[in-house]
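Example 3.2
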Amino acid sequence: MNRRDSIRSLFLGSMAGGLALESCVTEPKQALEQKIWDYQYGRTPQEKAYDEKLLNQQFFTTSELDKIRRLGNLILPPNEAGSIEEAGVPEFIEFMAKDFPSIQTQMRGGLMWLDSHTYKTFGKNFIDCSEDEQHQVLDLIAFPDPEAKEQKQEVRFFSLVRNLVMTGYFTSEAGIKELGYQGNQPNVWDGVPEEVLKDHGMSYDESWMPKFVDQSKRNDMAAWDEEGNLIS
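Structure, written as tokens:
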């Protein structure tokens, strides 16, 4: 499947009832302070306090984060534009799990299902499986049944992870660069198109034409003499 084309289907859905399971962050104080600083731009004091509270907590275990990281690389393999690690996708998913506790049970249950299924099928945990074996597992849960009234839990789990990975990556600097998004750019207006002017029986004064078509003068300001005649 063409995983990068899935950007068109970005949507944080499949929310399930959850249970908050948190512990204290054990990373170095300097790293935590930098992480908190990264979340400060454009935040109100209340939002900053809330973000700092979440960043001081840890939801996923190291083993669960390793599986999330592996899933992310299977969904969006690294390319010349960047990788999910460079885009901070695992950290984004960790933050989202704390910001939206309703997804916690679904995420944790899905990660447990991966190990349960691969252990029964291949005799080892998901993270220890070969890439081919991991793809075999994902092929079972990556495609929702269009005729099913309700998708299986593991299918909903993968859909949620895929949407989180897509959202985390394509809203990062690396992802935006890959999309080629330039943001708001000043446009160049060359005046009303000639065919539209003709349709309405109108035309521009020749003295004004350079103001529209000569873009080297696009920043020049028009000037008039005392009698109201255009000078330049």
